[in-house]
Recover the amino acids of this structure.
């Protein structure tokens, strides 16, 4: 389902040299598999998700998602591939402030080749417990509720892979579990592979597979 | 969700800035629409009056002046033409005038009087019976009215605006004042209104038309008979190359009292006065020259003994006409007539349509191009306002754009959304401005009508307005380009990492 081989990523520094962030020999996730990814702050977890999603290009190496070598796709091809196959939940500010909860989900359906399925969008929001908040703008929702809308939106196009980047880091502890359950149940129901980045041991210990990026990563990043 | 809806949501998101920039666009478009409509209406109303006949013939001079004062009742007339010249256009008895074969209708105009500032035109009933206006429309009278009759010398027909302003109605009488401008000049004998014209949207709405026969009988309207000429000597009219077509004996038969021109009018006409003016004032010709006012001070008022008494027509040698409207038998004849007349020495012939479109090309269009440029500039400034507003919002929207990209939107898509925002704001503001502009025209219409007699409706459209739509789209695209490129270049990974 997901395969990274010899992926290297570095950033240019102001002094002209390049700072290596990622150097991953191999990283695999099977179809429908759910795993947690841990690591020090600044060790490159977000950068790794960007590379997987095709938002950032690796310096070298192979990134294969659902059997597609996305390095061979054009930028436009990667955008389209991402819309069709990858769901993404960020730590914060997932939602566009001008759009209602329902519209945010519909927005997730707007950039694929397929049609916008409003009934599905409504079902997804009902599934995350926001069936009665369809027309609410993000400002009228709590952070936890916003994250639930983001989860619904990430599932909108029936992706094969869901990337969740510390989805509960800004949610109060009382509601963290609710979000994690939603993400995991959604993935289970639709057989979506999940890479969930987290800091919190209470979250990671619920996963049968927990990878530590510090160990995977051969690039030495000094925080 | 369509890109259009996404763009609209973004506009809503910035409601205040959107409203303000949209409003400035609306103002600019409203002004352009107002200028376009005003210009179109003026041009239209000018051409309206200028069709229905081929030529205006008058004394040599400025063509524009001739057209303005006959067709539009503006400016002072050039001097008069001898009546004999008019007769060249008509058939008297079975004697066709020199130009008559080429002419369908020839209408004489005698100018020189006003009523409360409105021009009074001495003419013949054929003006309303045989000529059309505004491309095939017939003159019509308000119910209860009719055209004046040739044999009723002191009948008159008035234009719609005149009726409205002066309150004159069918059956009322009015006394034309000598001279073209409003003032307390010599008050002439009264004419009776027998018809009110329905509004035509031409300058004729602002004029009063009196029977030419009556006009000639008014004080100071007869061309003085020069001393040493016998009354029955018609040679005095044979000016230049335009020789009389009709033989002298024709006159004798037709005009009963032609032999006694001095007695043609009421016998008690104050001869002393006449003598004085006839000798010391070269301008004191029939259809008043522009400076006829100099006699205001002297009270010439003299009563006719009512209208029921029998009037004798003024002999032809004492008559003059200011202009002749000519409907030629066809376009070729019109052109031939025009050339022939202009080659002569006394008269000129002008095609009103041509003169007026030339006039518009040089004068009016110059002014309106300047006005249009100014208003278009306002639109451009409004467009720049939209650009600045969207561009300024880009920093706050970096993350939104990055989120959209993460959802799979391509660079081209986010670029299109921003362009659409610019176009929607421009077109939305433009539509509001379009309505506003026509509302403006609708409100100002009556005011313009009061001053010019030109009727402008709220729904008066000008084809040029259609250019506004592609024009606004092009402008909006140009203005949206800068912020749209900024969206296009957004570094998604960086924008997602940066905490907003
Ligand atoms: N666009 C960038 N340019 C330069 N350095 C970057 C950029 N993005 C991230 N980095 C650096 O890469 C490292 C890893 O960042 P990140 O992937 O966000 O870490 P994590 O998500 O594990 O906290 C950090 O040191 C960060 O400063
Ligand atoms: Mg991170």
């Amino acid at each position: 389902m997901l395969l990274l081989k010899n992926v290297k990523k570095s950033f240019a520094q102001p002094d002209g040299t390049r700072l290596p962030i990622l150097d991953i020999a191999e990283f695999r996730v099977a179809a429908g598999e759910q795993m947690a990814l841990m690591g020090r702050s600044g060790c490159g977890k977000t950068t790794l998700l960007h590379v997987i999603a095709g938002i950032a290009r690796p310096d070298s190496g192979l990134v294969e998602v659902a059997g597609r070598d996305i390095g061979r796709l054009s930028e436009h091809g990667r955008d389209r591939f991402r819309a069709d196959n990858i769901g993404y939940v960020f730590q914060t500010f997932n939602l566009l402030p001008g759009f209602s909860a329902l519209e945010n989900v519909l927005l997730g359906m707007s950039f694929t080749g397929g049609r916008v399925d409003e009934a599905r969008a409504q079902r997804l929001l009902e599934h995350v417990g926001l069936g009665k908040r369809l027309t609410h703008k993000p400002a009228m929702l709590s952070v936890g509720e916003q994250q639930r809308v983001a989860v619904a939106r990430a599932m909108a196009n029936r992706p094969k892979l869901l990337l969740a980047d510390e989805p509960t880091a800004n949610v109060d502890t009382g509601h963290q579990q609710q979000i994690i359950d939603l993400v995991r149940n959604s993935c289970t129901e639709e057989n979506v592979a999940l890479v969930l980045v987290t800091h919190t041991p209470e979250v990671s210990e619920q996963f049968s597979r927990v990878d530590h990026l510090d160990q995977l990563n051969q690039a030495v990043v000094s925080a | 969700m369509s890109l259009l809806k996404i763009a609209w949501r973004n506009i809503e998101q910035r409601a205040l800035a959107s409203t303000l920039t949209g409003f400035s666009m609306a103002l600019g478009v409203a002004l352009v629409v107002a200028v376009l409509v005003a210009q179109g209406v003026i041009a239209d109303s000018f051409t309206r009056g200028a069709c229905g006949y081929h030529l205006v013939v008058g004394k040599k001079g400025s063509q524009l002046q001739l057209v303005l004062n006959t067709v539009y009742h503006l400016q002072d007339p050039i001097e008069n033409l001898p009546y004999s010249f008019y007769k060249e256009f008509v058939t008297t008895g079975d004697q066709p005038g020199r130009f008559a074969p080429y002419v369908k209708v020839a209408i004489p105009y005698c100018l020189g009087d006003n009523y409360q500032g409105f021009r009074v035109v001495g003419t013949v009933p054929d003006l309303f019976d045989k000529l059309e206006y505004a491309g095939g429309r017939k003159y019509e009278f308000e119910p209860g009215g009719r055209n004046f009759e040739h044999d009723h010398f002191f009948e008159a027909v008035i234009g719609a605006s005149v009726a409205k302003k002066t309150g004159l109605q069918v059956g009322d009488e009015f006394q034309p004042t000598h001279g073209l401008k409003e003032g307390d000049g010599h008050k002439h004998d009264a004419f009776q209104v027998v018809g009110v014209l329905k509004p035509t949207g031409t300058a004729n709405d602002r004029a009063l038309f009196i029977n030419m026969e009556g006009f000639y009988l008014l004080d100071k309207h007869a061309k003085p008979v020069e001393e040493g000429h016998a009354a029955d000597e018609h040679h005095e009219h044979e000016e230049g190359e335009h020789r009389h077509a009709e033989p002298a004996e024709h006159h004798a038969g037709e005009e009963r009292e032609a032999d006694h021109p001095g007695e043609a009018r009421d016998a008690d006409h104050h001869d002393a006065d006449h003598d004085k003016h006839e000798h010391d004032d070269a301008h004191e010709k029939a259809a008043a020259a522009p400076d006829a006012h100099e006699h205001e001070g002297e009270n010439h008022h003299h009563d006719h003994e009512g209208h029921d008494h029998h009037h004798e027509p003024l002999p032809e040698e004492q008559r003059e006409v200011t202009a002749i409207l000519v409907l030629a038998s066809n376009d070729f004849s019109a052109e031939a007539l025009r050339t022939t007349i202009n080659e002569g020495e006394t008269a000129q012939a002008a095609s009103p349509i041509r003169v007026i479109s030339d006039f518009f090309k040089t004068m009016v269009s110059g002014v309106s191009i300047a006005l249009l440029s100014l208003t278009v500039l306002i639109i451009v400034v409004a467009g720049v306002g939209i650009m600045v507003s969207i561009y300024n919002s880009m920093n706050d929207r970096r993350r939104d754009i990055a989120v959209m990209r993460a959802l799979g939107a391509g660079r081209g898509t986010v670029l299109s959304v921003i362009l659409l925002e610019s176009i929607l704001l421009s077109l939305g503001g433009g539509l509001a401005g379009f309505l506003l502009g026509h509302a403006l025209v609708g409100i100002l219409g009556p005011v313009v009508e009061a001053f010019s007699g030109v009727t402008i409706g709220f729904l008066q459209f000008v084809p040029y307005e259609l250019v506004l739509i592609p024009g606004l789209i092009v402008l909006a695209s140009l203005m949206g380009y800068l912020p749209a490129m900024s969206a296009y270049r957004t570094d998604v990974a960086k924008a997602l990492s940066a905490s907003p």
